[in-house]
Every structure is written in structure tokens, then in C-alpha cells.
Write a structure and sequence with these properties.
The protein has helices spanning 4-14, 17-20, 35-53, 76-85, 88-98, and strands spanning 62-68, 113-122. The protein is α+β, with helices and mostly antiparallel strands. Strands 1-2 form a two-stranded antiparallel sheet. Helix 1 packs parallel to helix 5 (88-98).
């Protein structure tokens, strides 16, 4: 599912783009996965979203969304994505990107699939730094994969990284 050749090319072509990015080290890689296969997972995700939204309440900083850390059960394509994310090859790529020996939480606690229906939002927030169930685990990196088919900038919702000491700066 993950196009590892594209990930490696991003390292080769981007040099130290990750390390020098502001306000935090980050990198954006378009088409990091097989787009056709990911599109096949959209219908089961939409069905799940419709079921989940019927009884969904509002959260403090999010509305009309669901989170599923067991996303591999939704579609075979998502199961393949999960396997790739937990693979030794992806771990080696993360080490090459960051210079750190990182690993992914195999339970995807606080992560996994986040999906929102019409009118959903997710306000600016800070994710936890220390794993709530594994206190010796420190979150060093977030991996975001957007599955917004035909998303347009006019919809809003662009990713915004902001340092807490520099409120208002982008």
C-alpha cells in the first residue's frame, strides 16, 4: 500500500527538508500510498461514518467525527496500510528521515482512522506527549495521511502547525 520508492525519493530530493522545516520538523509527501487502493477503502469508511454519526456527540475541540484505532477491520486496504506502517521497512525509513530510532504504537492509541462528516471540525490542539497507557513511551512524531477525495482549498481545514509561544504565526 505504501509506495516506499516515493518515500525514499522524498529523502533523496528533500535533503534535510524535514529537519529544517518550521515551526517543527515536518515533511509533506504527496501520493505516498497507492491512490487506487486507498480509494477502494473510501466507501467502507463512509458507511462507518454514517453509522457512527447517528449517535455522535460533540467533543470540546471536535464535532461530528469518529476515531477508530482498529481501522484495519474497516477495509482490506486499511489492513494492508496498517501492516506497512508497522513494517521494518517503514521503521527504517522513519529512522533515516528523523535520525532517531522510532516505532509506531501497534495499538494506534489516540490515532488510527479519524473521519468527519459534514460540518465536522477539529480545532487547534496539542496531542499527548506521553502515552497514557505506556508512560515510558514518548510521542516524537505524528503521521497524517489525508484521504479527502477531491478536496478543495475553499473547504478550509488546511493543516496548520503552530508553536504555542508564537500564537498567530504560521
Amino acid at each position: 500500500m505504501i509506495d516506499f520508492s516515493r518515500l525514499h525519493a522524498a529523502l533523496t530530493n528533500g535533503g534535510n527538508a524535514f529537519a529544517s522545516a518550521n515551526p517543527y520538523p515536518h515533511i509533506a509527501i504527496d501520493d505516498a500510498c497507492d491512490a487506487v487502493r486507498l480509494r477502494q477503502a473510501l466507501a467502507p469508511i463512509a458507511q462507518r461514518l454514517e453509522r457512527e454519526m447517528q449517535g455522535s456527540g460533540d467533543l470540546i475541540f471536535a464535532r461530528n467525527k469518529f476515531v477508530d484505532s482498529d481501522f484495519q477491520t474497516i477495509a482490506a486496504e486499511l489492513a494492508e496500510l496498517r501492516e506497512d506502517l508497522l513494517s521494518p521497512e517503514f521503521g527504517a525509513w522513519l529512522r533515516e528521515l528523523t535520525g532517531e530510532a522510532l516505532f509506531l504504537d501497534p495499538a494506534f492509541y489516540g490515532g488510527g482512522l479519524h473521519a468527519g462528516g459534514e460540518g465536522s471540525f477539529l480545532d487547534m490542539h496539542t496531542d499527548f506527549s506521553y502515552h497514557p497507557r505506556q508512560q515510558s513511551w514518548r510521542r516524537r512524531l505524528n503521521i497524517l495521511l489525508y484521504l479527502n477525495l477531491d478536496w478543495q482549498e475553499s473547504y478550509g481545514g488546511q493543516l496548520q502547525l503552530q508553536h504555542v509561544d508564537r500564537e498567530g504565526e504560521e
